[in-house]
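Weekly sync, protein design subgroup
Attendees: M.S., D.O., the rotation student, P.L. (late)

Item 1: inverse folding check
M.S. brought a backbone from last month's batch and wanted to see whether the design step gives back something sensible before we order anything. D.O. pointed out we never logged the input encoding, so this time it goes straight into the notes. Structure tokens as presented (402 positions):
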């Protein structure tokens, strides 16, 4: 994940037992550059350190900043209710600058800080090197915006989990959309990142039977280069291919430029993006004139989340920032924190093996902003849906039923 395409039934007595107190106006965060950071397990009176690795700068800064704001609000809410194990939660924030190299550096810094667990990050390619470092150091890591199937399926990671969905589910939704609308000429474009290429390949898997039978024809399948500004060559090829639908599986920064340039050049077929285009900047980059009518695949948008925990969180967030989060990965970051706190409480320990075991086996009853949180044996989120949304003329993503 991403970038933007879109989230208690817990006993009050249990929350009171698990959770300690801190004012919501003073976010519980600390940069990793602080000179002395105590290990989270060194004293029962000291706070439990939870790392947040996020892209605070670079291409994914918008979702990274919003994730930081969201996690700090959630930490304050948890601390107001007692924290966990009689200790407060303290968030240690590290910027991975939206790239794999800095991601590895951020992970090393959080390991040095002796965090108990980590919430990380936006972008599958960005997360990969960090996930290996956390695994090697036996630090439970819950991803909030990394959807590549390979993160859980290519190798066994005992300490890795995610509150977001996976690429294969997004590819499946696109294939269902193609079949429902009767499209016969398909264009799929990616950017060679782990995430984008993964979504593109998963879409092809779900379309394979129709492609093999000739019912559907793949008229374009190619990659663009992230960071470029002029996509004229790729758009010329798309115009020549004359697709019925165009699926771009990359991120909002390029998606905004692509749809603007394509519409200006005369390409009018439906545009579909993954959850990584849901950021507000997609519309700003493209211009609403060109972006309206676009589709994107995502898990439920923040505005659709309305359980008691979501209502509490959004009220606190709005009180501080004037609105609710707009990027789907932000609730996933919050839910990563809620899941970790739940698991620490269930384990009655900050031992990494005990926490990982609880995340695997003791999540029944854990409710986050996006609903029940449970993980598969491989660490994937169980039974988490993806929907299709369309951008209306006012710039709002609305649920599209087909």
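Designed sequence read out in the meeting:
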């Amino acid at each position: 994940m991403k970038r933007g395409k879109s989230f208690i039934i817990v006993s009050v007595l249990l929350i009171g037992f698990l959770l300690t107190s801190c004012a919501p106006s003073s976010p519980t965060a600390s940069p990793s550059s602080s000179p002395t950071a105590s290990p989270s397990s060194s004293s029962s009176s000291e706070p439990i350190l939870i790392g947040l690795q996020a892209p605070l700068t670079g291409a994914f800064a918008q979702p990274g900043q919003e994730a930081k704001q969201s996690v700090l609000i959630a930490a304050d809410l948890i601390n107001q209710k007692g924290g966990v194990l009689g200790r407060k939660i303290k968030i240690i924030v590290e910027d991975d600058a939206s790239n794999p190299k800095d991601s590895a550096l951020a992970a090393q810094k959080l390991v040095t800080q002796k965090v108990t667990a980590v919430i990380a990050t936006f972008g599958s390619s960005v997360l990969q090197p960090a996930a290996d470092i956390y695994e090697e150091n036996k630090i439970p890591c819950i991803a909030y915006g990394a959807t590549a199937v390979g993160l859980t399926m290519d190798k066994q990671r005992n300490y890795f989990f995610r509150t977001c969905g996976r690429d294969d589910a997004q590819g499946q939704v696109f294939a269902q959309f193609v079949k429902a609308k009767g499209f016969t000429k398909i264009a799929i474009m990616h950017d060679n990142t782990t995430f984008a290429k993964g979504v593109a390949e998963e879409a092809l898997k779900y379309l394979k039977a129709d492609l093999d039978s000739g019912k559907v024809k793949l008229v374009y399948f190619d990659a663009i280069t992230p960071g470029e500004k002029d996509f004229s060559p790729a758009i010329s090829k798309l115009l020549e291919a004359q697709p019925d639908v165009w699926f771009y599986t990359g991120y909002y920064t390029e998606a905004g430029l692509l749809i603007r340039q394509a519409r200006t050049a005369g390409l009018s077929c439906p545009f579909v993006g993954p959850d990584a285009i849901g950021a507000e900047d997609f519309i700003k980059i493209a211009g609403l004139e060109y972006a309206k009518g676009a589709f994107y695949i995502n898990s439920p948008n923040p505005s659709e989340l309305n359980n008691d925990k979501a209502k509490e969180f959004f009220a606190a967030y709005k009180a501080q920032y004037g609105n609710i989060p707009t990027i789907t990965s932000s609730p996933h970051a919050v839910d990563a924190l809620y899941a970790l706190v739940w698991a620490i409480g269930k384990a009655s320990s900050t031992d990494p093996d005990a926490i990982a075991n609880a995340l695997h086996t003791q999540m029944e009853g854990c409710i986050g902003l996006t609903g029940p949180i449970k993980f598969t044996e491989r660490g994937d989120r169980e039974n988490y849906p993806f929907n299709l949304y369309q951008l209306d003329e006012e710039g709002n993503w609305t649920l599209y039923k087909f």
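Discussion: DSSP finds 14 helices and 15 strands in the chain. The domain at 168-298 is CATH 3.40.50.2300 (Rossmann fold).
Action: P.L. to compare against the previous round before Friday.
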